Amino acid sequence: MNLGTLTSIFSNDLAIDLGTANTLVYVKGQGIVLSEPSIVAIDRRNGQVQAVGWEAKKMLGRTPGNIVAIQPLKDGVIADFDITEKMLSYFIHRAHNRKMFVRPRIVISVPSGITQVEKRAVKDSAYRAKAAQVFLVEEAMSAAIGAGLPITEPSGNMVVDIGGGTTDIAVISLAGIVYSHTLRVAGNEMDQAIIQYIKSKYNLLIGERTAEEIKVTIGSAYQLEEPRSMEIKGRNLMHGKPMTLVISDEEVREAISQPVEAIVNAIMVTLERTPPELSADFVDKGFVLTGGGSMLLNLDKRLREETGVPVTVADDPLTSVVRGTGAMLADFDLLRKVSID
Fold first, then answer.
1. Which residues pair with 179 in a beta bridge?
2. Which pTM value belongs to this model?
3. pLDDT of residue 9
4. DSSP states of 86-132 as a string?
5. Is-contact 269 170, C-beta < 8 A?
6. Sign of CA dihedral 167, 70, 209, 143
7. Using CB atoms within 10 A of its CB, is residue 152 exposed (0-12), middle (13-18) or buried (19+)?
8. Distance from C-alpha of 154 to C-alpha of 156, rounded to nearest angstrom
9. With contact defined as beta carbons under 8 Å apart, do 252 and 218 qualify?
10. Taking the CB of residue 252, how many other CB atoms lie within 10 A of it?
């Protein structure tokens, strides 16, 4: 079937950024219609979905014994096939105002290092969620398009997409990926590092939501001009009582130093392995950061200092991937070139 003949005036086509932390949905002709956490609350007794997205996130750490809040994607790939299918069905119906008989074509962005088995799992989940056709595109490629990089030109374009579960790094030229690297270290790893640091230093147990709030509010990759601090609440592991303490930006920087260092090292390796003709392009234009993790304070400053090349944070980095994926709904020639089997 010819892809070009499938377009219709009342298009149902969707682009999905299926992320470990958040799922974003783009509808052709409307833009981004949905941005919600990739979390599903399930009743263990009957397997019924109780809540999805924001409603399910509010339940994290606060559910009764029979209800469990699950993140069905781990490190950018499907860890729970059935729950992912239920989550996708919910988001697809939400995007189409719960029209039950819509069978959209869907373009889904996936991490560059995804295996054949993982690709099949993503496609199968989308088909079971009533998709008519499914195309997969590498996240880094989508991020580059969403960030406005001239990916079809014969020059080196480098993008670093730091999401919740993975950091995708790619060098792109002539609409193809010359070199790519997926690191299963990103925002979630930083959250876990903060939890462990506070637990070992203060005997205080905090939840994932608190850890994420700490990272977003005072987390940084490089010393801040003005010190910041934040009051946090948790449970003391010695006597089991609730406890409040104040944590500084310096402590948070120390807590997340390992995951940040891993991302910096992966970028350095990419620069070293890029063909010299393309790496010469980076001297002037450098590379672009996208994804929620790129919003970590002073990360761009740290990378500029370590790599010696310009570093830019994309406009609205949280939506770069889904906007890039969405752009392909209107350009099937480009989709043919960049989709993966």
1. 171
2. 0.87
3. 34
4. HHHHHHHHHHTTT-TT---EEEEEE-TT--HHHHHHHHHHHHHTT-S
5. no
6. positive
7. middle
8. 7
9. yes
10. 26
What's the mean per-residue pLDDT of the chain? 89
Does residue 288 contact residue 159 with C-beta atoms inside 8 Å?
yes
Work out the pLDDT band at 10, boundaries 50, 70, 90: very low
Over residues 85-109, mean pLDDT = 81
pLDDT > 70 in the chain, percent = 95
Domains of the chain: 3-141+321-340 (3.30.420.40), 149-185+258-314 (3.30.420.40), 187-256 (3.90.640.10)
CA angle (159 as vertex; 251, 176 as ends), nearest 5:
155
Tokens of 177: 């990926």
Confidence of residue 98 (pLDDT cuts 50, 70, 90): low
Q: How far apart are the first and last CA of the chain?
A: 17
Pairing of strands 287-290, 242-248: unpaired
276 is written with which tokens?
A: 């010299």
| Least confident window among 12-16, 54-58, 98-102, 106-110 | 98-102
CA distance 323 to 16: 9
- In this structure, the dihedral spanned by the alpha carbons of residues 314, 160, 263 and 285, taken in order and rounded to 10 degrees, is -80
Beta-carbon count within 10 A of 97 CB? 8
- Of 245, 243, 261, 244, the C-alpha closest to 253 is 261
